[in-house]
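Before relying on records like the one below, remember that each one covers exactly one chain. Contacts with other chains, cofactors or solvent are not represented anywhere in the record.
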Amino acid sequence: FDMYDGTSTITCKAFVEPEKVQKVMGRIKKGIRVKIQGNAAYDNFAKELGVIANVIIELPAQAEITRQDNSMTKRVELHLHTQMSQMDAITSAKDLIKRAASWGMKAIAITDHGVVQAFPEANHAVEDGLDIKVIYGVEAYMVPDDEIPEGEEGWKKIKPYHAIILTKTQEGLRNLYELISISHIQYYHKRPRILQSVFDKYREGLILGSACEQGELYKAILNNKPEEKIEKIVNYYDYLEIQPLGNDEFMIRDGTVPDQEA
């Protein structure tokens, strides 16, 4: 079962004697309050932190705990996935925008993987009277042209980098739609790819960010590329993305880096 404490959720497992399973599982229902005692550890099966619950105590019901944002200065999230990002998110654009607005955030970006299907829902959410601005964007699969091997379809042989593209004008939104169409019709190979040369053609009205650890800049630093190469990459982007350490902690677990400092 999954347990929520008002800030985050963790999956719990309990090993129960066969004859008691039906009774125990009959009491663990959605929405009840429990207190558990157990060990939190990395679950090799689920590939995330989990708890083996040795003791489960049901508590009296109370009003739902809703997470609050008490920051004096509100953030603007520029890298966000909805349920339109396959295998990367399950929340609708409307629910995300609604929650951000309730926290007092004045703007929020929608950047699904390679697609823009969440845009209509995001637009309708704002039309419903929410005091928040939607920044329309995408997390693109970008292919640097200077790395493409010779041949008609050399672009298929290059692993694409992640990059965040945000719109800042109506022309930019139109250009983003052009890029999405081209990436699906002309350069689709496992994923919709955007060649850098094609992006440069439609760059007007768009803002380019370096994205996550799958981004070109992060990979270049990780792979000890020469300083001049890193500087060239930095100069290509409009802004550089720095994510919370927890987002990349898997790199410690898989041995890519030794610790959080690295």
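The chain has a mean pLDDT of 93.
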